[in-house]
Design goal:
Blueprint: H1 9-20, E1 25-31, E2 38-41, H2 52-59, H3 65-70, E3 72-74, E4 77-85, E5 93-98, E6 107-113, E7 116-122, H4 128-151
Antiparallel strand pairs: 1-2, 1-7, 3-4, 4-5, 5-6, 6-7
Length: 153
């Protein structure tokens, strides 16, 4: 049986490129909760620096309430947790905002797509709500790409 982890890095990179072309995003990564933790990322962004520990904390199913108090670090950038519906049926998203940056904060959305997670950082000035909606809309295209790829095997 073909599993989602067998999808080539090229397919994942195409998904990243698709997001960056929206003009709303400045960085994106596709991660999973098992090795290889980082499946694809935008090479000119910061999310390629996501660590295994950061990914495990972000995706842990237990102890999620402490994330509201402690925040989350992504690629060395501290983020505030705004809304956590990552493991809520029918939503599967999480909204964050970077903090402590001299140039201002940025919205970050994480969405679960089957067994992988897409992390998207919005352009400066992009609010979390519109970013979340765009990510949710674009996940349909990614699911289609996954299913098309799976159909070829």
């Amino acid at each position: 049986m073909q599993c989602i982890g067998d999808i080539s890095e090229e397919v994942w990179q195409d998904c990243i490129t698709l997001f960056l072309q929206t003009g709303m995003c400045c960085d994106a990564a596709i991660i999973t909760n098992s090795p290889p933790w980082l499946l694809a990322s935008y090479p000119e962004g910061n999310l390629f620096q996501l660590t295994q520990e950061e990914i495990q904390i972000l995706l842990a199913r237990e102890g999620r309430e402490k994330l509201f108090h402690q925040g989350i670090t992504l690629a060395g950038t501290k983020c505030l947790l705004i809304r956590d519906n990552l493991y809520t049926e029918g939503n599967n998203t999480m909204d964050l905002r970077t903090k402590g940056q001299s140039q201002g904060s940025q919205a970050v959305t994480v969405v679960q797509i089957e067994s992988v997670y897409l992390v998207v950082m919005g352009q400066k000035g992009t609010e979390g709500g519109p970013l979340n909606l765009k990510v949710f809309e674009m996940t349909g295209y990614i699911k289609e790409a996954i299913h098309q790829h799976m159909a070829h095997f």
